[in-house]
Amino acid sequence: MNKKILIVFLFFITFFTIPFFYQTSFSKYMFEDSFIATKIQIHKKPQIEVIGISNTNTGYEKYANNTHRISLRVKIIEKHVAINHFADDMISIFVDDLAIHPTIKLYLISNDNGEMIYDIMLSRLTGNGTLSIVFPEGIIEDSFGLKNDFQKFDTGVIIDNISPTSSCEELTIENNQSQYIIHSNENIRPLDGWDFYNGNSSLSKMFPSPVAYPITITDYAGNVSDVFVSIQHATNMMLYYVNDNGYPISEFNHSGQISGNQAILDSSSKKTERVIAYLDSDMNHSILQGRVFDYTYWGENTSAICIASEIKYFHGYSPSPTTWYDIYGLNAIHFFGKLALQLGGRGHNDTGYSCINQVNPLPEEIAKQNLYGLSGIAFQLKNCEEYSIVYQIYVASVGWLRASSDGEETTYAHDKPFSAIRMSIVPKSEKQHLINYWNRVIYTNYTD
Question: Does 19 reside within a domain?
Fold first, then answer.
């Protein structure tokens, strides 16, 4: 009995444990479970980005005034644009916190693959402060009803429509030169021939002699203001001169002073018969050179003796169209106790005076008309690269002629002698400033 029970027990154990020792299912059907992940697309709002800024204020792109044009390149990112209100009347422009109303022009550059590129051109910008642009909410809407957010973009460009203000000081330093300093209330651009002084808001330059003229300073935004340079105390390089037109002479003129202005004041017909000049400087005095065209009653190939200095002068170019007189030549004289260079000579318009070796005296009626004298003149500073000499002549019934410099002849016509002259020495970088200033009075009877 026990043996039978054991056999039955072993059978049941074997029957129920065999399936668990095999990987293969003995079921008639096999079931496979599969799980499908849901694809969820999260849609973003339309995006507006400023991707570039340019400025016509070349070299100073972070500054602008109402003469410049600011260009902003803007990218709109949205594949499904349903409503596009991106237009010039939907964009706001601010300078600091003040809304301004410049000219706005909008250009669509491209529209491809979900990106639109626009250029926004801003001009006639007013106010003073930092420029920013505002894109309001909802100017771009997609097909899902999503709209762009409000955005205020700081361009980093400073709008400045105020001209710089300045003050000046003249410092006398060694060798009797002057250091002239222009102080501005803001940073200014470099000025040819000048150096920055303790930062970018002040300019400095050395001057050897007195001179006066205006120059223009410019701030970073391009605003300008005139500064009147007035050098009074420099005496390192002094040019002295007189214009002898028959009026009494009591002293030399210098530094742009008018010599012979009494003839202008009197509307006189008197003409310049000689110019006397000398250079007082540490430099070799012979660097001052001159030549003239001398228009005489006696005509070509004639000469006469100056009744004041007994120096010979010639009709036509003296010494020639290509050569020069200097202080160490035969035309040197002592005048007011100074060794000076004489160009021309007295006697052109004196009754009864005649040329050398001829009996052809000036008739009284001709002499009264003052028809003769110096009609063209030129000066230069020989082998002097640092400084220029500027000169200007006055012709009766015409006025002041355009200023000339550095060896250029100035003349109205060789048969029209001049009545007055002014001259000055300046650093070469300042020559054009002085010429421009003197040219303001051309064809006038200016005498100040």
Answer: no
- Domain assignment present for residue 117? The answer is yes
Task: Tell me which residue of 417, 429, 441, 209 sits closest to 313, measured CA to CA.
Answer: 417
Strands 237-244 and 274-281: antiparallel
Residue pair 193/430 in contact by the 8 Å Cβ criterion: yes
3-state SS, residue 393? strand
Look at strands 47-55 and 69-77 and give their pairing.
antiparallel
Instruction: Supply the pTM of this predicted model.
Output: 0.83
**Domain termination site, one of 105, 127, 159:** 159
Beta strands in 97-177 (DSSP E): 98-100, 103-112, 115-123, 129-135, 140-142, 151-159, 166-172
β-strand pairing of 63-64 with 151-159: parallel
Nearest to 63 by CA among 159, 184, 200: 159
Q: What is the dihedral of CA 343, 345, 348, 353, to 10 degrees?
A: -160
Beta carbons within 10 angstroms of residue 224's beta carbon: 12
> Which residue reads 């935004």 in tokens?
221
Residue 41 burial class via C-beta count within 10 angstroms: exposed 0-12, middle 13-18, buried 19 and up: exposed
Q: Convert the pLDDT of each residue in 117-164 to its tens digit.
A: 999 999 999 999 999 999 999 999 999 999 999 999 999 999 999 999
357-382 burial, b if ≥16 CB within 10 A, otherwise e? eeeeebeeeebeebbbbbbbbbbbbe
